[in-house]
User: Fold 2-aminoethanethiol (Cysteamine) dioxygenase a from Chanos chanos.
Amino acid sequence: MPRNNKTPLIQRIARQANETFKICSSSAIGDSKVFLDRQAELSTLLTQIRAADLKIAPPKKGSKPSDQTPPVTYMHICETDTFSMGVFLLKGDASIPLHDHPGMHGMLKVLYGKVRIRCFDKLDNPPCAECETAFDPPLLPFQKDALRRSLLRSTGEYSEESGPCILTPLKDNLHQIDAIEGPAAFLDILAPPYDPDDGRDCHYYKVLQTVSKTVEKSEANGEEEMWLLEIPQPEDFWCGGEPYPGPEVSV
Ligand SMILES: [Fe+2]
Assistant:
């Protein structure tokens, strides 16, 4: 029997993530055939992984989490200079608010439950002469600097049967993740990892409602231009930690 078949799938995923993303030092890497081939192989491995492979199970039906527990918890699996990998667990109807991954790639694979993911691209900001009156509620003067033009690229639902949701430094880099129909968990790979000291801090956003056509809002091919406001981390969102119970991973 090939040695590979005895290696836990999560270990094979970690090795493949390392092989895929260690060549990410070039900004043109997204077009590199080698990178795309390796990422496709990683995607195939991720599609196969299930909660049981990580010794994780959904909460028992009827068990009610206390309001004091975090809406989202994170199980750290491994982190190198190249990538980080862990599992996010969302209580029923919990959300991870709209946030970005500056200069990073990401792959997200649902392990149990179902999530809805809205993906945005950040666009270059044009001048916004009408900003003071164009939004409902109106912007406060200091908020103009926190305004970001964006493109809503997709809204999709993912379950354990789905392949991974993929983000790149330029495409689908912002996302909001909502657990629907109960609790959910997903495996998350980010490359390179968040590092505020290296310009990769996480920022949160909210979608602004416009009140007039004076601010451009076009819709074509299901993609819609929107205005986002960078905000502090929402008060109703915080992320706790819990131990990872699955097979040991080394890279
Ligand atoms: Fe994310």
In short: The chain is about 15% helix and 35% strand. The longest strand covers residues 105-122. Helices lie at 9-21, 33-48, 131-134. The mean pLDDT is 89.
